[in-house]
């Protein structure tokens, strides 16, 4: 392969850098016990708990930016742990609505300060202004 370093540097690519930052974040997550929830399970449970009422699995997937297959797997694991429950939709018997259980809300309450600490540790190398800028730019990309 010819030297294309002037044209392309992997270390300057947004996807590569985002993946490295995410791996760093996950390493920090693994050092903590957030109610034995993965970051994806936490965000799924958090979104569901903050909805005013039961929602469909499809709607939940959109809220946490996950495809249908991933959402199904996360929902299955949370349901097996008794953290969420499903109920047949009154309007459409083919659909099921999801909601958190009392146990799910308790685990979430326990996990929330841990997840906040994980965020602080992930962002620790940055100044407060850099943290705000990073979050603003990430929101703009999303």
Automatic annotation (TrEMBL):
- State the InterPro entries in the record: HTH_MarR-typ, MarR/SlyA-like, WH-like_DNA-bd_sf, WH_DNA-bd_sf
Keywords (alphabetical) are: Plasmid
- Indicate whether Ribosomal protein appears among the record's keywords: no
The residues covered by the HTH marR-type domain are 11-142
User: Domain of life here?
Assistant: Bacteria
Q: Name one GO biological process term.
A: response to stress
Gene Ontology molecular function, alphabetical: DNA-binding transcription factor activity
* UniProt protein name: MarR family transcriptional regulator
């Amino acid at each position: 392969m010819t030297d294309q370093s002037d044209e392309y540097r992997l270390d300057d690519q947004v996807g590569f850098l985002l993946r490295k930052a995410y791996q760093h974040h996950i390493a920090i997550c693994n050092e903590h016990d957030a109610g034995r929830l993965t970051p994806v399970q936490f965000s799924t449970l958090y979104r569901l708990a903050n909805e005013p009422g039961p929602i469909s699995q499809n709607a939940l997937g959109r809220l946490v930016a996950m495809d249908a297959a991933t959402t199904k797997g996360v929902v299955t694991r949370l349901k097996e742990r008794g953290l969420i429950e499903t109920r047949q939709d009154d309007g459409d018997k083919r659909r099921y609505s999801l909601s958190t259980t009392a146990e799910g809300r308790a685990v979430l309450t326990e996990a929330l300060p841990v997840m906040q600490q994980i965020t602080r540790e992930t962002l620790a190398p940055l100044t407060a202004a850099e943290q705000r800028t990073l979050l603003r730019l990430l929101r703009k990309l999303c």
